[in-house]
Amino acid sequence: MIKQSITPTIDGLNFSLEDIQKSKSENKPMLLTLYTKGVCNLKCPSCFIETEDKQFKELTIEQYYNILDEAKELGIKTIKISGAGEPLLDHRIFHIAKYIQKLGMQCVIYTNGTFFGDDDLSYKIHKLKACDLIKNILELNISIVLKYNSFKPDIQDYLVGVKGAGEKIQKGLNNLLKMDFNRKRTSKLAIQSILTPYNIEEIPELYRFARRNNIFPYFETVLKKGSASENSNIYLTNNQIKDIFLQLLEIDKKEFHIEWFPAPSFVGFFCTELYYGMLIDNFGYLKPCAGIHVQLDNYNNKSLKKLWSNDLLIKLRNVDENIKGNCKDCVHRLKSCFYGCRGDAFLNTNDIFGAYHECWWNKENFI
User: Fold this and answer.
1) Is 96 in contact with 103 (CB distance < 8 Å)?
2) How many CA atoms lie within 13 A of 99 on its CB side?
3) What is the rounded distance in angstroms from the CA atom of residue 270 to the CA atom of residue 309?
4) Can you give the pLDDT at residue 194?
5) pLDDT (0 to 100) of residue 102
6) Angle subtended by helix axes 238-251 and 203-212, to nearest 10
7) To bridge 82 with a disulfide, which of 91, 110, 263, 275 should be the other Cys (CB 3.0-4.6 Å)?
8) Which parts of the chain register pLDDT below 70?
9) Which DSSP helix (H) or strand (E) runs through 137?
10) Residue pair 252/2 in contact by the 8 Å Cβ criterion
11) pTM (2 decimals)?
12) Reading across the β-sheet that carries 297-298, which strands appear in turn?
């Protein structure tokens, strides 16, 4: 039996427990999340991104280059590009990715996948057809996390909010597989699926499909903020979440000889980024992570090194000493779940260190 890594087994995100402990002891970050322009071609009801500002303009390409230079100097290994909209809609994305490669860091891009299945869209922004765009990504050694919620185009359309998007996303995934994007030993491709009542019946087959094709199954629950806070019809109950997690664990054990500890909000892995990462949004604001909409400081005012020394980030890196509520005394905490989603805890308790509302190991929240 293979024990699943505590982090996603995707090239650039697969940090070991030893890596995390070393990062903490040396006080050196390993991961920087960057937002590109806040534009998107989809209207996902599960979107939790909240980004708006009137004080600062969006970052310039020169500022991105400066941030990346400072990230390299700090010892950061991976740059994760995940929003505040669709990264491939930003025409500067390949300039940024090339600079990341030049500096010897790994790039991971979270994308809705429409560019990979739509020649017209790809050519409009990048002057490349879809497959040539994928070829560029391969040459730059970029890992891809692709939004993929369903095999059914109509369900996919509903869960991304745009009619016809499902076919483009499916074609995009097919193009990625056709070009052997998933054939490297360490996975370069993940499919990101949100667990909802609309796709819950096909989640087991989606999971099997990913495992069989060397694609990392990046499956997660809905974080009820942003647009998602207005769409309660896409929420599962804690009982439903627990049931599907346990079902997927059984599939992994019996069919793929993989085991992991079942706890929300991610299937088979945990969010550990607060120990070794930080986020700079498209306006330069420092945030703890994408799930916590708290603006701590701004790159326009301070260097990346000084931002890493922000008081709240330091407390979060020492979450073991600051955690509150039932999570503080839970037997599963450090060895298994790393205190769950701090974004969810903040939403429900107004305290980043509060109890994790969705966790079924906390019987008071098991409904």
Assistant:
1) no
2) 18
3) 24
4) 96
5) 98
6) 30
7) 110
8) 1, 51-54, 185, 333-336, 362-367
9) helix 130-139
10) no
11) 0.94
12) 216-220, 189-194, 143-147, 106-111, 78-81, 31-34, 277-280, 285-287, 297-298
